[in-house]
Every structure is written in structure tokens, then in C-alpha cells.
Amino acid sequence: MIVVENLHKHFGGFHAVDGASLEIKAGTITGLIGPNGAGKTTLFNVIAGRLPPTSGRVLMNGEDITGLPPHELFHKGLLRTFQIAHEFSSMTVRENLMMVPADQTGESIWSSWFHRGAIREQEKALLDKADEVLDFLTIDHLRDEKAGNLSGGQKKLLELGRTMMVDARIVFLDEVGAGVNRTLLNTIGDAIVRLNKERGYTFCMIEHDMDFIKRLCDPVIVMAEGKVLAEGSADAIMANEQVIEAYLGTGLKNKVQAEAGA
């Protein structure tokens, strides 16, 4: 679905993404892991149109989408969430969801004067859709709560819910588990798996919680120093010496030898 070819993103002399190439296949939940500074979020930002690449290409189903702005990618079904949730804090949870679909009839002054019936019908459909999403995510009891009052984990669920208000095809999740308690993290994980299996969503997720990655993701892609270091199943990645070295600063053999000599 998504193919990244020899992608570079430089900030002056710093090469945040340095020739990364990878593929995210349709129907997968792909994990993207690596140490801090590996280039993971920068890669997301380039794919999702928030940053232009220095060079390289991004393809979506064979179409070159390199450098397209986020609103155009939104209409193609490519969405992303953020490590820090971006909610409208003074609006209710339900209202946050209802704002997502683009080109709503009520946004036009002309339509607000002459097409009130159509506006009412669309608002009813959006209301029903929002309630269905809240029920799916098991947070229907929060529908009338101000979004700013939600916990960190509930805000992550709300962000996931926003992707359900449109015809998302692929969703990039940036540290969906950051700052989330284990109970809510399990709820988020269940929702991601259901969206993948029941509704055909493709996901790519940055995450540091390897238990969460192991539960959800196959394959797992590892980045280090702006490059793709390894790819495989979670078990294979966790046993890969290069990956261990990238995270811990020492190879598995050296670690074993040091322990044997102690």
C-alpha cells in the first residue's frame, strides 16, 4: 500500500532520515521501532505530508504522493495521529468526532440559508456515526464530556475515533501508548485489532512498548540513525543482535561474554 523509496530528510547538516526504504502492506499492522532520534517521527511527518522530503519518493497504491499536503492525503484515506493528542478541548467528545468529515453542507453560508433541510439530515447522519464510533470504542459514556477533561488514554481513543469518521485506508499512529495506563492501552489495542480485522484498516505504528508491539504488529521495522536496520516478526526482531546493539549500545555476544566472565 505504501512504498518508501530511498527517502532523505535533512535539517541542515543533520540527516534525520537517511536513505530509508520500506513497504507497508495493505491489511497489516506494521510496527516501527527504534531508539530516540532514529528518524521515526520525521519519517511519519514526510509520509503524511507535514514535511517535504529532501529527496526520495513515497508511493500509495502505485501513485506518487511525495510532498502532497495533509488535506489531500486525508481525502485519499491517509491519516495520522500524534504522540500528544490534538483535541478541541472546549467541545464535547461527540462534537470532536462530528467535526472530522470535510466539506460539510453547513460550512457554506449559502447552504445555511437555503438548504437547512439537507444540513439537518447531514447532522443527524454525523450524530449517528459519532455515536456508533463511541460505542465501538467503548467510550459512549463520555459522549457529552468536554474533550479537555479526558485522561491521556481516553484522548488517544478519541483520536482513533476521529479516523473512523471518514473512510480511512491507512492510519499512522505515533506512540499511541505513551502515557496510557495498562487497562486503557489494552482497550486501544483491542480497537486497533478490530479495525484491522473487521474493517480492513491498515496501520503503521511507532511504539516503544515491545509487549504492545509483539501483541499487535507483524511485521516490525526497525530504524536507527535515519536508516532501516531490520525487518521481521516481533520475535525475530527482539532476537536480532543489530537491534539489541542499536537499543542497548552493545552486541548480544559482548553482553553474553561479559556475563560469562563476571
From TrEMBL:
CDD domains assigned to the protein according to its UniProt record, in alphabetical order: ABC_Mj1267_LivG_branched
InterPro entries given in the database record: AAA+_ATPase (IPR003593), ABC_AA/LPS_Transport (IPR051120), ABC_transporter-like_ATP-bd (IPR003439), ABC_transporter-like_CS (IPR017871), BCA_ABC_TP_C (IPR032823), P-loop_NTPase (IPR027417)
An example Gene Ontology molecular-function term: ATP hydrolysis activity
Sequence ranges assigned to domain ABC transporter in this UniProt record: 2-250
Coiled-coil residue windows: none
SMART domains, alphabetized: AAA (SM00382)
Pfam annotation, one family: BCA_ABC_TP_C
Entry keywords, A to Z: ATP-binding, Nucleotide-binding, Transport
Entries under PROSITE patterns matching the protein: ABC_TRANSPORTER_1 (PS00211), ABC_TRANSPORTER_2 (PS50893)
Domain of life, source organism: Bacteria
Keyword Transport belongs to the record: yes
One term under GO cellular component: plasma membrane
PANTHER family with a match to the protein in the record: CONSERVED COMPONENT OF ABC TRANSPORTER FOR NATURAL AMINO ACIDS, CONSERVED COMPONENT OF ABC TRANSPORTER FOR NATURAL AMINO ACIDS-RELATED
Protein's name according to its UniProt entry: ATP-binding cassette domain-containing protein
Record organism: Kangsaoukella pontilimi
